[in-house]
Here is the input.
Amino acid sequence: MNKFIFDMWPFLDKAICKIIRSATRPIFDQYIGKYGIESIDFGDLTLGTLPPTLQGIKVYEMQEKELVIEPVIRWASIANVTVNVKVHSFKLSTQLLDLHIMLAPRVTLKPLVPSFPCFANLCVSLMEKPRVDFGFKLLGGDVMAIPILYQFVQEQISKQVAILYHWPKVIQIPILDGARGTFIGETVNSDPWVWHKWIAHATFIQGKEWWGGATKKPIGILRVKVIRAMDLPKMDLLGKSDPYVKLRLSGERLPSKKTSVKMSNLNPEWNEHFRLVVKDPETQVLELQMFDWEKVKMHDKMGMQVIPLRSLAPYESKLFTLDLLRSMNPNDQHNKKNRGKLVVELTFDPFREDNSTPAVISDGEGNVSIKRDIPAGGGVLLVSVENAEDVEGKRHTNPYAVVLFRGEKRETKVIRKARDPRWSEEFQFVVDEAPVDEKIHIQVRSRRRRLLPFHNKESLGHVNINLMDVVNNGRINEKYHLINSRNGKIHVEIKWNTV
Here is the structure.
């Protein structure tokens, strides 16, 4: 089991962190605009390279159709979680690091059924108070170094976790269809935070993030045309509003796309086009938010609306005239106020299935090559930077990868003090035509956190990859020797999907 967890941990780290981001986003959004808070987001979010380990496990013999196990779990992680809060243009960072946990849970799989994964519900509770130790930095100083505060925080965490999960209280999570899960002894709808906990746990085991979301791949492109807005409210005492629209797909960590700002206009026209990569049209929604641009203070939120992608038919353009709302809460009394309308046009273009038969070409001397018909039109280039080997810097080795394509730059997270870093990060580039005669540049760099600007960054090697084979074959999965590196290699997977 420990070997299995160790091999799976890089992927579990990425999946769990993705769930954390999606589960905490609604909580963060509740505070934006209050108390002068302009934004809250994660900086670094990684559980580290060290996985939890099982120190022992007890299995109970049961007559019922269930399996009861009690593992002892220890986790001395090098987790690094940074939350950035912007208050009145002042940026405040808090950092959680060096997390140490000891748990003694009871896990019950019941009832056992003859359908994969062979149990219908997962029930978890704690048999004793958890032991939790961590570092917490605020404004560069370790708050947990204060003895009295350290002891108080330790006790409170153990106490609150025990209240929620200590036996006989049980978290029951449905695995198979037809099973319903809830927090025993709690009312899910009574507390928003309880609801988010339920979502996080249920999604982690049952939902698309765990069984499908971590492996979901793009299946098409959503084309959005932001046409116009009408009868927008006046947000300033002097002058009219300066509106612009932000749009994003739910479940994505990518930055929101923005229209241009229309100055002093309550009936603006944009006619601007955007393309978003779709992974799950059955569950994803397009989020549209209207803001009033401000030169100095925080931009005022004018209204919002969402469009479920399941309402779209493939390849058919659909026009929407949306009534802007203050929030998506159906009980919000402020939604009765007129906030204007937004007109958008959406088109969902699924990727083509490559059913073309490749042509085999011979040069008459026994040498053959394969050539495929390259479909005209655009698509999505998916670049997965998996890992690197034997990278070494002259002054420091904190590697991260930089992907450059058509002037766009993407970066992986930084892995501190590692010669064999594993990133497993995927980047998307939406293009209008097949990149047949182009190259993609990938460079491994090292970054050091220091106040002095000297030697903070250095290159550990690079590679230029021709995209002809990617377009012809649809996919490459190779290890490349890094140029300007002694023994360094990088593992990259690139896919090309057309629409």
